[in-house]
Amino acid sequence: MAETLVLIPGLACTGRLFDAQIAALSGSRNVVVADHTQDDSVPAIAARLLKDAPERFALAGLSMGGYVAMEVMRQAPERVERLALLDTSARPDTPEASRDREQLIVLAQAGRFEEIHAKLWPRLVHPDHRNDRALQATVFGMLRDTGAEAYARQQHAIMNRADSRPLLSGIEIPTLVLVGEGDAITPPEIAREMADMIEWASLAIVPRAGHLSSLEQPERVAHAMRMWLEEG
User: Fold this and answer.
1) Which of 45-54, 157-166, 200-209, 223-232 has the least mean pLDDT?
2) 131-156 average pLDDT score
3) Phi, psi (5° rounding) for residue 4?
4) Through-space distance between the first and last CA atoms of the chain, rounded to whole angstroms
5) Band of pLDDT at residue 231, cut at 50, 70 and 90
6) What is the distance between the alpha carbons of residues 19 and 116, in angstroms, rounded to a whole number?
7) What's the Rg (C-alpha) of the chain?
8) Domains with residue ranges and CATH for the chain
9) What distance in Å separates the CA atoms of residue 207 and residue 226, rounded to the nearest whole number?
10) How far is the CA of 184 from the CAs of 59, 71, 180, 213, in angstroms?
11) pLDDT (0 to 100) of residue 156
12) Could you give the CA distance from residue 222 to residue 225 in angstroms, rounded to a whole number?
């Protein structure tokens, strides 16, 4: 039976976040996208994923997806064959970040998605991509598709996530830690911190990519993930 790869998108993102990687990797394995929209806590999202996933699988998450992936490792590490943490952090939310999230929830509940997008866009991508209209349309489309209720649930889950740093030293499976070199939200030093804590981790820093590396440099990210999946 082909190995299954479970992908977890980031905040206000859908499976479109991984379109290029799904196309590149699905030939030799089953690729599924986890549902991270129904629950308002990271443990509940992880539990839903585990209920729907096969007994053993490879797991990759970007940003919020990484928070969920680490929670999966907390709940059922024996079921994960290999792990990829993309543009994410093992640290808990800061009080400042939580206050910003509360303000964004208010905008979402008022239907003001354009304002949310305008606030976040400059920090989401590498400076070289800020004028990329097609990329911007994709990101805004995912935000609209997520919707206000799911967006609020996701933000509450992120605000209350655990500190996963104590978990990392116990991870003993092939692990990819990947980050865009221009990621302003979870910068390379955060990725290095995680990679240093995981014994079998490899670190990939993607040039000309920000926080949405899988969209900004799809071929490079797909190549890094293929190497990770084929690692012995």
Assistant:
1) 223-232
2) 97
3) -95, 135
4) 18
5) confident
6) 23
7) 16
8) 4-93+156-230 (3.40.50.1820)
9) 18
10) 24, 23, 9, 12
11) 98
12) 5
DSSP assignment of 138-168 equals HHHHHHHHH-HHHHHHHHHHHHT----HHHH
- For residue 104, the SS3 value is helix
d(CA 158, CA 137): 24
Helix (H, G, I), strand (E, B) or coil at 76: coil
Task: Look at the block and give the residue holding tokens 């030093």.
Answer: 189
Q: Which tokens belong to 145?
A: 């598709």
Residue 41 burial class via C-beta count within 10 angstroms: exposed 0-12, middle 13-18, buried 19 and up:
middle
Residue 63: CB atoms within 10 A of its CB come to: 28
In terms of pTM, does the model score above 0.85? yes
- Give pLDDT, residue 91: 98
**How many CA atoms lie less than 13 Å away from 32 in the CB half-sphere?**
15
